[in-house]
User: Fold this.
Amino acid sequence: MSQSSSRPPLPPFSRESAIEKVRLAEDGWNSRDPHKVAQAYTPDTSWRNRAEFIEGRAQVEAFLSRKWAKELDYRLIKELWAFESHRIAVRYAYEWHDDSGNWFRSYGNENWEFEDSGLMARRYSCINDLPIAEAERKFHWPLGRRPDDHAGLSALGL
Assistant:
């Protein structure tokens, strides 16, 4: 499939470009802008997110709209786990609360596969939610991009 756009860094990935790709993905998701985030995926992208199967950008955008309507004050940190050629594996954690004020830290792993254009064609995600007290939160930055000086997962002991 030909793509009309590219999304650097492009595969095959080096360690440095894989780390950059992970941070760019984290930044996108922390924007909580479903349309913007969906543009990082191929038009026919295929996802498994928990027990939900998602096909194509329109379903990605609808999924993310539902997600961020439920997961309030969402803040995410991703960390490179492994990479090879056109694939990247990450681990991540995000904190959020529901509309009743109950806080959670959600932990997960994702496997990503990219086309030569740098757009993600496949995303497989496994996630577990841990209820936490608000005082147990570790992600304390203003909504949006995580500041460069905020600790990552390993430094936070997660």
User: Anything to note?
Assistant: The chain has one domain: 15-136.
